[in-house]
Design goal:
2 copies of one chain form a homodimer. In chain A, the strands form 3 sheets. In chain A, strands 1, 2, 3, 4, 5 and 11 form a 6-stranded mixed sheet that branches. A 5-stranded mixed sheet of chain A has the order 8-7-9-6-10. The longest helix of chain A is centred in the C-terminal third of the chain and has 11 residues. Chain A is built from 9 helices and 15 strands. Chain A has 2 domains: about 200 residues, Periplasmic binding protein-like II (D-Maltodextrin-Binding Protein, domain 2); about 80 residues, Periplasmic binding protein-like II (D-Maltodextrin-Binding Protein, domain 2). The first copy, chain A, has about 300 residues and is an alpha/beta fold. Chain A is globular and about 60 Å long. In chain A, helix 8 packs antiparallel against helix 9. In chain A, strand 13 and strand 14 form a beta hairpin. Chains A, B: GO terms for molecular function: prephenate dehydratase activity. Chains A, B: Keywords: Amino-acid biosynthesis, Aromatic amino acid biosynthesis, Lyase, Phenylalanine biosynthesis.
């Protein structure tokens, strides 16, 4: 590890006080890890791949606004830069957006800064309360808060934590369209051997993320691929696609299902799957934290590596 | 129609000189239609639904950067605002991005403005030639060109047409990552009866776009749905998904396949499909322009409605 700290480090999509930072703090015990912001999701992948950090935390999907395409594109790994980077954990963070400003009221606000995803998640509130106010996209909600700290005619959509960090007023709280606005983050690691071992007898479930392409000249190739999961009793939890960029209108598919890649029936399914798809890659197996959410996991031991074990 | 012009009008995602404007000019004869820019994709849908224009032109998908999620979200129609708005045509536009500036060389450029999709499509060139230069997201490439026209320290990623309109230098041409960088646009119409009739005996093919949800409590429901297309011999040409926003991690799926919704075998397939999916909606059938691209369609008669007929 290149870090000079005696503690292993965790890279996250920064800046400080970002939702990724909060997700990293959910997963790793601050007494045992140091945390390093990175300016872009690609920089987190690069730090993990190079061994400059022990883990990385990146956003993957939001319950209101869908997949984070930048993360999907990095998993596509079209330049083969991240061949040793795998997913070893996931975490879910409830996202509550606020309108922050140094102005005393919304009537003084002429511009709103935020990340495009955050604008997308607050569309209803903005349509009702800020119609005609200019919107300016910036790279993160925390960056937006930083910008408006010096601009009394502007507001930011960001977290309550960002208001504290940048000394801003909360003009409106919980302005997200859906009360169930949750972002899912992945924990990245560079060594597949570090992936969590198969949980046995704990009543817990694992999930596995795959990427693959299909021969688009063969009609029904995607259907044949998905049918394998059904035939082997593997329930799909997520499906997404991105352009392969090798051929126009040719796609990389991402499929997540319940099961660990080490389990015998999963390995049998993957062997079958290889008959129907190309470039199959196992991106990682990890504990299903979504099912645990109703079980008070926040109070349980820190996950992924907080107790010094891989699971 | 609310338009005061004697000619029927076509709304497109503006401003003038945008790629949507170029796509609209590809589809409709300027001698027979007037063209109206709209500030947002939602505004194009609204104009079509309200009958304020005869047609709308919106971007749907880019071959390098994937689906335009704003358009998908409007097709989801979660607020039931666009129940009479359908797709009646498609067109493909080759997209060549340029770096435009009033500066004489790249070395004077401290900021680059563009749409997030355009940044995504020029990632390789930017990494090699403009590392460390600040990137500022704006709502369109043409807006970016407009902004930098008055800022000698800035550049825009936009079209060559935008350079002419705003009097900018082309510092670098064709900077997109993929030589096959193509954007697909949909033509919207408010009356499903206006959709193109089934082509018979012309050797042409039609495509149909559907949206549906599946009961996420039923394992394999998506697989069962996709299998129907295979069983009825309908080849899928596109699949996409967006969060339903009704329940977290519940999705609206978009499937496009070869065939017209009026054709007998397609209607049989749709009847079968209804057994496996919820909220099935036919978003339109239209002539497959992708297959026609190699056949010199640019020189052929204007499509969709340019010759006064629906096809």
């Amino acid at each position: 590890m290149a870090s000079t700290s005696p503690l292993p480090s965790v890279a996250y999509l920064g800046p400080r006080s970002s939702y990724s930072h909060q997700a990293a703090l959910e997963c790793f015990d601050p007494a045992k890890y140091t945390f390093e912001p990175r300016a872009a999701i690609a920089d987190v992948f690069t730090a993990v791949q190079a061994g400059a950090v022990a883990y990385g935390v990146v956003p993957f999907e939001n319950s209101t606004n869908g997949n984070v395409v930048f993360t999907l594109d990095l998993f596509c790994d079209r330049t083969r830069s991240f061949r040793d980077t795998f997913v070893c954990g996931e975490t879910y963070l409830d996202v509550h957006h606020c309108l922050l400003s140094s102005a005393a009221s919304l009537s003084s606000v002429a511009r709103i800064y935020s990340h495009p995803q955050a604008f997308g998640q607050c569309e209803n509130w903005l349509s009702a309360n800020a119609r005609g106010v200019e919107r300016i996209d910036v790279s993160s909600t925390s960056k937006a808060a930083q910008i408006v700290a010096g601009d009394a005619g502007a507001a930011a959509i960001a977290s309550r934590v960002a208001a504290d960090v940048h000394g801003l007023r909360v003009l409106a709280g919980n302005i997200e369209d859906s009360a169930d606005n949750t972002t899912r983050f992945f924990v990245l690691v560079a060594q597949p051997a570090l992936r969590a071992p198969v949980s046995k007898g704990h009543g817990e479930t694992d999930k596995t993320l795959l990427s693959f392409t299909v021969d688009h000249e063969i009609p029904g190739a995607l259907c044949d691929s998905l049918k394998v999961f059904k035939d082997f009793g593997l329930n799909l939890t997520s499906i997404a696609s991105r352009p392969s960029r090798l051929l126009p209108w040719n796609y990389v598919f991402f499929v997540e299902f319940v099961g660990h890649s080490d389990a015998q029936h999963v390995q049998a399914a993957l062997d079958e799957l290889k008959k129907y798809c190309l470039n199959l890659r196992i991106l990682g197996s990890y504990r299903d934290e979504q099912r645990r959410r109703g079980q008070g996991y926040r109070d349980s031991e820190r996950r992924v590596a907080g107790n010094g074990k891989a699971s």
